[in-house]
Amino acid sequence: MQNTPVSSLVGEEYEVEVGPVAHGGHCIARTEEGRVLFVRHALPGEKIVARVTEGEETSRFLRADAITILEPSKDRVEAPCPFAGPGKCGGCDWQHAKPGAQRRLKGEVIAEQLLRLAGLTPEEAGWDGTVMPAEGDKLPQGEVPQWRTRVQYAIDEEGHAGLRKHRSHEVEVIDHCMIAAQGVSELGIEKRTWEGMATVEAIAASGSNDRQVILTPRPGGRLPLVELDKPVSVLRVDEKDGGVHRVHGRAFVRERADERTHRVGSGGFWQVHPKAAQTLMLAVMQGLTPRKGETALDLYCGVGLFAGAIADRVGDQGAVLGIESGKRAVEDARHNLEGFPRVRIEQGKVESVLPRTGITDVDLIVLDPPRAGAGKQTVHHLAGLGARRIAYVACDPAALARDISYFAERGYKVRTLRAFDLFPMTHHVECVAILEPVKKDA
Question: What are the catalytic residues?
């Protein structure tokens, strides 16, 4: 018995009115036949022609690009980047929207996820509904924040540097990236060819003049002689074990936040926006209000940004335990926190290490989980520790909302929520939620 062939709808065009923004950098529209389209390069309220980029007759929904704008939104602008648009670079989602409109769209996504997954209105979450730009990101019309201190360039078969197209392995060759930090642009990655390389990652620390290039060779590819426009440390990714190894220069960069220098190795995490670490650290400290002598957990602690900030505020009578899965990040965290004898960093997955610690109560918790969130098991464990306040730092509003609902199941409510636009031109947004136990009636 032969399978019935499925008819692809790629390339089909529909004239539609664009509905609300959806999580992921696109808007929702429906065809006259009722098909759901997730459309990029559109804005709510517009009338457009959408061309299908993914989907078949049997698909629950179709992906599409807005290729013709019949009735534009008042929030639409000409994309400042020549590599943005349908079929081009997939890095930016909202180049065609005014900066204020981008933040409103992100706020609408957060509100929708909170209501759908946590059953909370903005007011119930202690949020005023605004998404705040980072310091220095409010620029005159037409100017673009140069905020990406870390850019991973994809290399095509001819060795040219570019960025991948949306949901594709195809490379859009570029001669510059408008949102790259000045320190990245000054390296001149796009000016030369990179034969034998799969990717070239450029890092320009915002807290120092440290610059780093991480090379990932294609199978059998030989490392090139790296000659760039600025001094740079070079590392390579081993094709056998996936480890990152130093070729020459430093194996780390130095970043600044909370008036301290942090060593960040190739395996460590640091926020990409130059103002992000300080912005999030202040939001967490303002929400937790650490007191002298308190105990705290810093989960998914990276190189120790929050652990150090809390330790500084709880003093020698307090104590902080950080948990991080990355081996090199743990090494960096221990190095960065050498001056705090009451801080301990444990390596391993939070869900595995936390139960083994034997901790039964704690005053404060901060968690900054990966995009998927912490999950029900970990959240329920944390809620059982009796913390007076919990700071949840989230890069994905859907995961945040889900985990907030799990905290609610164990008696915690959101006290305040703040949202920050630390990824201009993209759909990504960062949130800091402060939770506290629900007061029981006497």
Answer: 395
